[in-house]
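Long-time lurker. I teach an intro course on protein structure, and each term I like to show students one example going from raw sequence to a predicted 3D structure in token notation. This year I'd like something fresh instead of my usual example. Would anyone be willing to generate the tokens for the chain below so I can use it in lecture? Attribution to the forum is fine with me.
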Amino acid sequence: MSHFRPLRTRIRRPLAEKLRLAALLGLAAPLAACSGVDRVVTGSTGPNDYRTRHPIELKQGRADLEVLPEVRNGELDTRTRAQVKQFAQDYRGNGSGEIGIALPQGGRSGGEARSALPGIRRALAAGGAHGYVSVSYYPVANPTLAAPVRLSYSTIVAQTPTRCGQWPNDLASGSSTIGWKNEEYWNFGCASQQMMATQVADPRDLAGPAAVSPPDSHIVGRAIDAVRQGKDPGTAWATQNSSISTVGN
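-- Reply from a regular --
Happy to contribute to a lecture. Here you go:
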């Protein structure tokens, strides 16, 4: 009878392993079902973002400035001179190539623009723009209206490819469920995107930050000297507040 014992031992061992495997699989099934809960995606709301509908794109374009110059005693007026000088400074920082000057042709504005051209050139030089300047002319449709002098240079510009004020769907329509969805309407965010693209000083800042400027050596040296002398290296800011009751007396 002893020769049957090894046979019974060989039969019981695979059965025990099968029971343990079945138990492990039974425990793993609920865990596998729970692991996919955070990855469930519903189709009730789709991707709807104003930055996707109205993206700001960086393109190679031209920066423009229109001025209405006046010549007084042979000199360019103060307002136009300051505008052209700032335009030249912007060209030094962000522009490239030649600076274009388009003068109106015909009417009183044409004669005023030709007389102001030397002053415009001097204002460009005062602003640091010493490159090549090309002069062209454009026809004036109505000579009785004031026509500007147009300055431009090549640079990177920020623009939105879409046009604001478009309403492809009726928000209050009762014939469809479009107005009942919890989604942004198509024109939402368009004005904000265009305003940001217009007002940004350097469009390249939208693509990435500029390099960090070097520290002020004078401020750093003053702080080090204060530490060596045992003084507080911080800066004390003194403020003086006025009483509201005394303002205007």
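Some talking points for your students: DSSP finds six helices and six strands in the chain. The two ends are 123 Å apart (CA to CA).
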